[in-house]
Write a structure and sequence with these properties.
By secondary structure, the first copy, chain A, is of the alpha/beta class. Chain A has ten helices and 13 strands. In chain A, about 30% of the residues lie in helices and about 25% in strands. Chains A and B meet through helix 5, strand 12 and helix 9 of A and helix 5, strand 12 and helix 9 of B.
Chain lengths: ~300, ~300
């Protein structure tokens, strides 16, 4: 067997900790370091931080050490992450990031993405933004489906998540329990919003060779019986593409549903949906071997070879 | 825009003709030649052979000319196709083949596949076997789904095709209308059998890193009300993997259904299924740009970058 790929976990929030725990289960991967800037975590043993019953002999560090690849889970905005990913690339390590805007960074930050691409090429490493959404159900999966089509006229994706079955952070993120007034204030402040829906749409448009000049995104609340907010309905539209995300407590029939209008028309349903709390750490970990074998550069999920469990 | 990729269509059966017609619709591809050994076709204008109302100025030839890539649709057995694909590789052309066993040729012909791989590398071209089944619904698609899994315990795929809605050749292929005795004779003679189910299973097993020593394949008939054969039910099993293909006239609820048992469990249904008569030529054409950009060698659908409509 080949030597395991040595991994540093960068960012120890819920997704980062889940990714690190999963790395420990994989024979072809070896967890060798952890980075977090939180002073409450720095210096502690990673086993303890991950809630394991054993020490790992890995101290959480503020500083990036050496490994083969980094799983990066710190922020949603590409501008906030690009510096960290650059640092990772300069240290000659591959990087899988959960940064939502990194799914298709050219949408909002074309110049910055091109710069990071050149940096990756210079240091002969590969980087990609992924996750379950953005990263899989509303972008990579519908794009793959078009492989069996002669013609695609329109793509519609609907993701329905019952936020009541998800971690509390997600319920807060969708505004569950707020009054409509509180909800509106938070939308204004930008604290309620799924980041990455426009990036998913731009990714699909790009794969289809369509110029989408502007993605229209709209965010509405869904109400509970008592008049408070149950969660959100967020829709992105651009040309013949529509991505709709419903995330609220009590959403019936949770699912991921893809309609391809074309020849042939395709209608796919993932019943029960794809649970992000598990699936996002999983795809971050599973994509690592694909990065290691990829051409150097800043990738998207369609320029890597087929991702699958590692 | 880049120069179009110049294509030769090799093999002018139903799938080959459909692929050639589709190439004509694609701006990034240019049909420049056609090969078939059938003396009734040789020398005729391709436009006429394709049922178009115009001439294309391309004469069907017995001999392989020069292009960038070849869409190869002649036979199901890898042994029968390997010589032709070698010839294509030696002429420095990429090759997408509908040869069912080429989906995962290492299953039955490891040495021959390794030899063809070396030949492709020497001539700096890429080749792959693909189609809708094998090639997509029972192999590539379930493998991609595992990308969002922490753990996979078992994979079950069910493809139900109503042969009554498909081209007549398929109805004959599944034995529709035969007596049970006639059906058994044809099964014995090997003329009734979907080729590639074991290859799909071996492809999935390989992606999951599972050693499957032996694929068990079983073929049964499905009866009509009048006691004659309606079609086939074919099942391949190996370790925790089960692929079941039902193809018969009048099959209810046609669909492609994938169950991943694991964490998370996933349950996907493609309602109505993925019609092979359209989807196989489509994926053969759509995979061409992925081949052109790939590393040289004999690929599988999981070593190319994400296929999608071109």
């Amino acid at each position: 067997m080949d030597k395991p790929i040595r991994i540093i976990q960068y960012g120890l929030g819920a997704i980062g900790r889940a990714a690190a725990r999963l790395v420990l289960e994989k024979k072809n991967l070896q967890l060798v370091g952890a980075v977090d800037r939180d002073p409450k975590l720095v210096g502690r043993d990673l086993g303890e931080v991950l809630g394991l019953k054993r020490k790992l002999g890995i101290a959480v560090s503020e500083k990036l050490d050496r490994a083969d690849a980094v799983i990066h889970c710190t922020a949603s905005k590409f501008e906030e992450c690009a510096g960290q990913i650059s640092e990772i690339a300069c240290a000659r390590m591959h990087c899988a990031t959960s940064c939502e805007e990194a799914l298709f960074p050219a949408l909002r930050h074309r110049a910055l993405a091109a710069k990071l691409d050149r940096l990756c090429i210079r240091h002969r490493v590969a980087a990609v933004g992924t996750g379950v959404n953005p990263g899989f159900v509303m972008d990579t999966l519908p794009v793959l489906l078009t492989a069996v089509c002669r013609r695609v006229d329109a793509v519609r994706v609907l993701r329905v998540v019952d936020a009541g079955t998800r971690r509390e952070a997600l319920q807060r993120k969708v505004g569950a329990g707020l009054t409509v007034e509180e909800f509106r204030q938070r939308v204004k402040a930008g604290t309620i919003r799924h980041v990455g829906l426009s990036e998913s749409l731009a990714f699909v448009a790009d794969a289809l060779g369509r110029k989408v000049r502007k993605v229209n995104e709209r965010l509405d609340h869904v109400l509970r019986a008592d008049g408070r907010v149950a969660g959100v309905k967020q829709v992105a539209r651009g040309g013949p593409l529509t991505l709709e995300l419903q995330m609220y407590v009590g959403a019936p029939n949770p699912r991921d549903e893809i309609h391809i209008e074309g020849d042939p028309p395709l209608h796919l349903i993932m019943h029960g949906g794809t649970p992000g709390d598990i699936a996002t750490p999983a795809i971050l970990v599973n994509v690592i071997p694909r990065l290691v074998e990829a051409k150097p550069g800043l990738h998207t999920m369609r320029t890597l070879s087929l991702p699958h469990i590692t």
